[in-house]
Design brief:
Layout: H1 2-15, H2 20-84, H3 128-137, H4 142-149, H5 153-163
């Protein structure tokens, strides 16, 4: 305590023009400024980390957008090529059946003539539903769709209901 008294006596000529409360409040204000500066630095570091994270996300999204743009251009190119191809050719078709895909009902002998057409690319065996839709659009009955595409009765009935020209089951 005596050391503090000695210090105050030495500082008395400096402190005498101003009241003690002014000096105390100045010291307190200085401490608050130092503490606030430390908080501001920590907050600044946190904001830099957040900014780096956002930049990385933006780079990733930009890269993804460029990739999607390339895919869209490729799909548009394929679409233009498909539009330039000639329409489906009409030709006789042999029914395609596998052990798993046999018709549920056989076609009666006195049935109407079967619509015989096929896509130019002979890949309807890999896509029997596409072929069944084509048959329905060209007026084939449910039995004809079953016989020529090899799909089940219920599948053929559904395709006929959705895609037949007259829309009658």
């Amino acid at each position: 305590m005596s050391a503090l008294n000695a210090l105050l006596q030495q500082l008395a000529p400096l402190l005498s023009p101003l009241p003690l409360w002014v000096w105390a409040s100045s010291v307190l204000l200085l401490l608050l400024l130092v503490w606030n500066r430390g908080r501001a630095r920590r907050r600044f570091r946190q904001m830099q980390i957040e900014l780096d994270r956002i930049r990385n996300e933006m780079r990733a999204m930009t890269t993804a957008a460029v990739g999607v743009g390339g895919k869209v251009r490729e799909i548009e190119r394929q679409q233009r090529q498909l539009k330039q191809q000639p329409p489906l050719a009409i030709a006789p078709v042999k029914p395609v059946f596998t052990e798993k895909a046999k018709p549920e009902k056989t076609l009666p002998q006195s049935s109407p003539t079967v619509v015989n057409f096929r896509p130019i690319a002979d890949d309807y065996a890999a896509h029997p539903y596409d072929y069944a839709i084509q048959l329905a659009r060209h007026g084939a009955s449910v039995s004809e769709i079953i016989y020529q595409s090899g799909i089940s009765h219920h599948e053929a009935k559904l395709i006929h209901m959705l895609h037949a020209v007259g829309k009658s089951a």
